[in-house]
Amino acid sequence: METILEINQLHKTYGALTAVDHISFKIKKGHVYGILGPNGSGKSTTLGMVLNVVNPTSGEYKWFEGSTSNHDALKRIGAIIERPNFYPSMSAIQNLELVCKIKNIDKSKIEEKLAVVDLLNRSHSKFSTYSLGMKQRLAIASALLNDPEILILDEPTNGLDPQGIRQIRDIIQKIASNGTTILLASHLLDEVEKVCTDVIVLRLGKMLYAGPVDEMNRNHGSIFIDASDRKALHSFIENKPYAGTITTHDNGLEVKLYEPVDNAQINKDAFESGIILSKLVHRKQSLEDQFIELTNKN
Ligand SMILES: Nc1ncnc2c1ncn2[C@@H]1O[C@H](COP(=O)(O)OP(=O)(O)OP(=O)(O)O)[C@@H](O)[C@H]1O
């Protein structure tokens, strides 16, 4: 599968502060990627570096498998990394015509792109009359004018109401379904989970996870068990191949599972080792729990 962007050991410091710490990942064609992390984790700096507006301290990145210079690659990319900024007294169409003129793009695409972002019926209204969501959608239409191979969005739903958020998410999915690769930065796990196929998790500039969203979710959870002989229970469970970290609580043991195992099997194993379980509860970890765990741990 074609690689759109390859980042290798990209690193950025501002004085003593490390904003991005030797991160490496690949963006493959046709996927929707989320860069997920709390505020200040280095998402915008990463986007800034690959868009040639922030100079990396070290490391490298390569667009389109190196078939073009990083400067020329920008013509094949659509990006919104700042708040939408258009002329307030001009209509959507007039603003997009101006963008076409500046970027030397054919005007014929304007209507098509306004339709993608659901703004055709307001295309003659002044930009100043637009809601924040409409402004953001116009920015997306503008970034799509040159039919980019990848669309990059930094916190695309920031400040929007639930309906505005929903519209932007639907539009992102519509654009992705037409084959455009998408890279979006977000601090919202829910957003990434709903929209993205793949995720790169950052914290304090470090990459904690890169891979499919559903593999981040492929977690076997924990079991909570108890028996009258706690010590024997501990020795029994710690030797099981499915058992990970064991935490002792007042009301029993919590055991993280490395492998899938059903309750009946655990019960049988315990019984065969002479242990009668007085408690056996299986809890699957939510993606949110995992995200919090990932971003707290490292
Ligand atoms: N121009 C700059 N000068 C100094 N420090 C900077 C600069 N730009 C970013 N930083 C710092 O680098 C770190 C990463 O910032 P960055 O904006 O990339 O994070 P982010 O994940 O995008 O967060 P947010 O969502 O809050 O923008 C932060 O500690 C930030 O204060």
Q: What about the largest sheet?
A: 6 strands, mixed
Domain tally = 2
What proportion of the residues is helical, as a percent range?
Answer: 25-40%
Strand neighbour order, sheet with most strands: 5-6-7-3-8-9
Q: From N to C, what is the helix and strand string?
A: EEEHEHEHHHEHEHEEHEHEEHEH
Ligands = adenosine-5'-triphosphate
What structural class should be given to the helix and strand makeup? alpha/beta
Question: How many helices in DSSP terms?
Answer: 11
Number of strands: 13
Under the CATH scheme, which class of the largest domain? Answer: Alpha Beta
Q: Using only CA atoms, what is the Rg?
A: 24 Å
Look at the structure and give the mean pLDDT: 91
Principal-axes shape call: elongated
Span of the ends, CA to CA: 32 Å
CATH topology of the largest domain: Rossmann fold
